Amino acid sequence: MLASSMSTVKQTRTACCCATSTRSTVSLEQLDLDLKIVSETVALHARHLLTVTPSLPHANQPAACALGRDRFEVFALVLDRRMDVGRAPALGAISAWWRIMLAR
Known about the structure:
Layout (H helix, E strand, L loop, with lengths): L1 H51 L8 H25 L4 H14 L1
Helix pairs in contact: 2-3
């Protein structure tokens, strides 16, 4: 009787572990698909922007690079601050960055 009861408990635990593992696998596969979609979307957006944005005259490129460097530094600082506080960085950091850039 005891052996039968132990066997049932072991089977139940195994079934629970298999179900949990299956759910985790499905979640990871969905996350992988979502990440691929986001990556492709960002790549297409970047390609579109590079296609429709006219190139700068050679004389203006150093100033544009310096401005881009400054903007990226501000973005990195805002992102770092939000990560230290433990807040979700993505949208909040980007909106904070835009507020700073528009204030300049």
